[in-house]
Input
Amino acid sequence: MEPPQKVAGKRGAELTAKLAVSLGEGYHVNSNTPHEAYLIPLKLTWTAAPLDVASITYPKPHDEKYQFSPDEPLSVFTGNFEIATKFKVPADATSGPAILTGKLRYQACNNTMCFPPKTVEVKQAVEIR
Output
């Protein structure tokens, strides 16, 4: 995961922050909407302040079959992709710089096995005008 680029927004407006994710060749993560309930989805969450989360948009997943799941395809993300979060800047937000904190939860796998799930912290710099 690359550190997110700083974003800026005016009080009462919306702004979009993009999180760039890169997976090494041969690796995948389950999409945010896996086909099976027992699979751990990719999920981005944010703390509540100082901005409000309006929506989180994940890329379109694709179905792939793997050695450990030869009959049923899995809904996955591979390679490089972005997760976009649309934030609403409250009308009463304090002007100036701020840091939003979030968490990205995922389970990485290769063609033969899955690794223990991880949660990594995301820090998003924002300038409120």
Q: What stands out?
A: Residues 7-123 form a domain with the Immunoglobulin-like fold (CATH 2.60.40.1250). The chain has one domain: 7-123. The radius of gyration is 17 Å. The first strand starts at residue 7 and ends at 9.
